[in-house]
Write a structure and sequence with these properties.
single chain; 163 residues; alpha+beta; 5-stranded mixed sheet; two-stranded antiparallel sheet; 39% helix
Length: 163
């Protein structure tokens, strides 16, 4: 799989925004959008829990050229993996490690190319990565915390951030 950047998925963000489908970017792409440099292989988004908004989000991703890898109703899955002709991948989560409500309420908007993406907060990215706990997730947590500690203003006593 060839590494990508968040800009690779700007058409997906634009399509979701066009239909006003609530979503939140999580996982590796969120890590990169918060400033930790590492390869991105796919886009992971968590979508709203209401069926009409779920359908709008899926249709938006499909309008950007993606097709589900399996033809099963979304309510039977926690995630649907979607691909396009250029070997890009979008994982659309109906259920995630953190609730959509929590992710949405704390999310931030970050510019990506010519558009804006709704991204899980720094704290929620770290929380989700710690819940999953795979080696690369823990490396992401370490990288984000180092970035946060390096960017904190200096004071007489510098306490590391530990989320």
């Amino acid at each position: 799989m060839i590494p990508k950047t968040p800009v690779t998925y700007s058409d997906v963000f634009a399509a979701l925004d066009q239909v006003k489908a609530p979503y939140v970017v999580v996982s590796g792409t969120a890590v990169v959008l918060h400033g930790h440099v590492r390869p991105v292989y796919d886009l992971d988004i968590v979508i709203s829990q209401t069926p009409p908004e779920q359908m709008a989000a899926l249709q938006a991703v499909m309008s950007a050229g993606f097709f589900p890898s399996i033809s099963v109703p979304l309510n039977l899955l926690s995630v649907v993996r979607m691909f396009d002709q250029e070997a890009r991948e979008v994982d659309v989560f109906r259920q995630y490690h953190l609730s959509f409500k929590e992710l949405w309420e704390d999310s931030v908007e970050i510019s990506v190319g010519e558009t804006v993406a709704r991204v899980a907060s720094f704290e929620n990215v770290i929380k989700a990565k710690r819940i999953v706990g795979r080696p690369h997730d823990l490396e992401d947590v370490a990288g984000l915390l180092k970035l946060a500690n390096d960017n904190r203003p200096m004071s007489k006593v510098r306490t590391p951030i530990s989320l």
